[in-house]
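Dear Dr. V.,

Thank you for agreeing to look over these. As mentioned in my earlier message, I'm a first-year student in the group and I'm still getting used to reading structure tokens, so any feedback on how I've presented them would be very welcome. I ran two proteins. I've put each sequence directly above its structure. The first is here:
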Amino acid sequence: MTTLLIQTESTPLTVNLPAIEPMTEQQFYEFCQANRDLRIERTVNGEVIVMPPAFSDTGNRNFNIGAQLWNWTEQDGTGLGFDSNSGFTLPNGAIRSPDASWIKLERWNALTEEQKASFAPICPDFVIELRSASDSLTGLQDKMQEYIANGAMLGWLIDRKNRTVHIYRPNREPEILDNPESVSGDPELPGFVLRMKKIWFKCDASVR
């Protein structure tokens, strides 16, 4: 049986399709191709999670996160950045789409062109998840632990509701920063600093 978890900004809705066997990787790829406007993930247990486009203020904050990561990536030159539409097949078989991510260039270049053109079989070295109104904190914490268990060297869970940033590293307990003005990626991403002002506050061009 395939289970679809349709997530909105207000509440998730689970739809069970008993006549359908769990999707193969190829079927999941075709399902995503047929629904390009949706952000779709698959858990290690085969559950398919459908997430519609984010509300505008969440999209603005994701944009600010991605822009800051892009600026650093261009200056650093040792890796590639990815936005929230990018799906990756983790070693455990789950297919995940972090809100922002980064991969070392040598790891990315080790993939074939065919692998890069699909849900690349690689866990990003660095991932960011921004908690939206519909996300449970425990669910995102589990997802962050999954990234770390599958090879990520650094992960940030940004919880706007509580103004905290949870920092994940392998073999360490998560570190929680309370209302930080900025978050540093050192030593894993030398010199990358995420300025939090536009992440915490309302969408306003006057906020610098």
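The second protein is here, in the same arrangement:
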Amino acid sequence: MTRPLHRLAAMALASAALAGSLSACAPLVLGGAAVGGLVAVDRRTSGAQLEDEGIELRSASRLRDAMGERSHVNVTSYNRQVLLTGEVPSDRDKQAAEQIVSKVENVRTVVNDLAVAANSSLAQRSSDTLTTGKVRASLVDDKLLQASAFKVVTERGTVYLMGLVTQREADRATELTRGVSGVQRVVRVFELISEDDMRRIAPTQPRTDAPRQAQ
């Protein structure tokens, strides 16, 4: 698939997600989704990908049972590292959510960035979905990055970047994301790997021997 088509795919996914968010009122959201032929090469092993899907499903179920409709919690798992975003009514709920997820099978670590606040509005969630699409598109457009190495989550204008990436890739993705309209803050939740590891698990990386000017 060419880069223009990749970019269209990213924006199409954002539009589809936005349409879904406008028609659904579920208070608890899973972080990952695979859409047919649009699924790109992933640096995680197939086993890790399945574990992440299971972690998200089990976490969602347990949080829903414990908190019901009073909280809006997004659960995103990448390589068994779980990111919690959204809103809960109290500090006690925030800590309870972390404890619940930390006990889910295969969870390695939990990054708890839940806000103690009222649930975000539908308009805010729609704006976040569009921001995620724009960030993904900017990563696809960049010739120095492999966009499929990154997972992007947006909550109240804050963009969380996840993935198995090198320091170079992390810095480049952060720079690009900060330049996207609608992004208020960038939080890096990367798992850093060496350049040698990157070449081993992702042999089709773009060339990096000749630096290029940022567009």
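From my reading of the second output: The helical segments are 3-23, 46-67, 91-102, 122-141, 167-178, 195-201. DSSP finds six helices and eight strands in the chain. Does that match how you would interpret it?

Kind regards,
E.
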